[in-house]
Specification:
This protein is an alpha+beta fold. The protein is built from six helices and six strands. Among the domains are: about 60 residues, no CATH class; about 50 residues, no CATH class. Strand 2 and strand 3 form a beta hairpin.
Amino acid sequence: MCGWERFCTFAREPERRKVGVDARVSLDGTAYEVDPDLAGEEVVLWWGIFDNELYVERGEQRYGPYTPVGGPIPLHRYRRFKKTKTQRRTERIEALAEKLTLPESVWGGAAPAVAPRAATAATPFVDPDPFREINYPNAIAAKKAIADYLNVPLAKLSAEAMDKLNAALADSLRKADVIDYARINLKPMLGG
């Protein structure tokens, strides 16, 4: 006689599937969220009639068990995956590459002197922004974007932080500036 867990493994059947770009796979109407490294890959699913969990195999590597994920994702939201081992390694390599410098002997000595440029007047490019791709249309839309970025209602901010935010939004509604302000000034206050 064998144990129940061992018996359940005998009742599993392999099925070849492609994992979606959102790292989810659907089986009999139930969605399972698998490892983000498997997104877009062809895998073998192991699921049996006695199982509540799903096991995934890609090449010689086995992943799992994965439980069903429930509920729809709210509109205008995206679930961020935990960083995988590959992504963490890539970030470490990128940080190391930024720190590395080459000695002067490798590239032939000191850098050639560059003649100073004559002062020229900079003329900014006037870019029509009909689809609101660069700037927010108003401060309310910018505040809504900040709340979505922080995943926290702005009412939880102190009065002083709101005053500084209003001053920053009066200064610029450019999307990059607004999100940079939220990342640098507001996210650390909220423990992010």
